[in-house]
Write a structure and sequence with these properties.
Layout lengths: L1 E3 L21 E5 L1 H12 L6 E5 L9 H13 L1 H13 L15 H9 L4 H9 L3 E7 L7 H8 L4 E5 L11
Helix pairs in contact: 2-3, 2-4
């Protein structure tokens, strides 16, 4: 199984252990890592049975102004951006410091904010027999989970975890 981590995170696979299909034919990723997992599934020559997308970075419903502001805040004070980002991704749960990493680049942030999930590419994976699973938290403070759910629903088994945030953890 291949897993791709989210922006500014490492070892975050453990956060999703209750959902992960740990087989050699599964590709999975969280948030920014979901984009990387999707790209891998599209281009790999090896067998893929399941693509698991945990809180995929879904910002195509945001304005250009929102994206510019995020990039500006990051450029102005990376440390403050990381701190706020880490708090937001774990809400409503507590921060899990075991997975924090602060080496996200401006280019990675730009890539994840500007990424467009293309319906025809999702459909092509579906047509190849790849089962796509999307997991979302109803209390996500990073993406609009309802918009993401509606977008992915025609192409994926889509699960909304009630009370969960971006990391799919439920608060105490």
């Amino acid at each position: 199984m291949k897993f791709y981590s989210g922006f500014c995170l490492c070892n975050d696979k453990q956060l999703f252990s209750q959902y992960i299909k740990d087989t050699e034919y599964t590709i999975a990723g969280f948030s920014y890592g979901a984009i990387k997992a999707f790209e891998e599934a599209k281009t790999t020559k090896t067998r893929v049975d399941t693509l698991q997308l945990f809180s995929p970075a879904f910002f195509q419903d945001k304005t250009d102004k929102f994206i510019r502001m995020q990039n500006m805040y990051f450029a102005k004070d990376k440390e403050a951006y990381y701190e706020n980002f880490h708090k937001s991704i774990f809400l409503p749960a507590s921060i899990d410091k075991r997975v924090l990493h602060q080496d996200g680049s401006a280019q990675e942030l730009e890539d994840l904010l500007s990424f467009i999930w293309k319906a025809d590419e999702l459909k092509a994976l579906q047509d190849k027999g790849i089962k796509i699973e999307v997991y979302l938290g109803s209390e996500d403070k990073i993406i609009n989970a309802d918009n993401a759910k509606e977008y992915f629903l025609p192409y994926a088994d889509t699960y909304m975890i009630n009370g969960a945030g971006h990391t799919l953890n439920i608060g105490e």
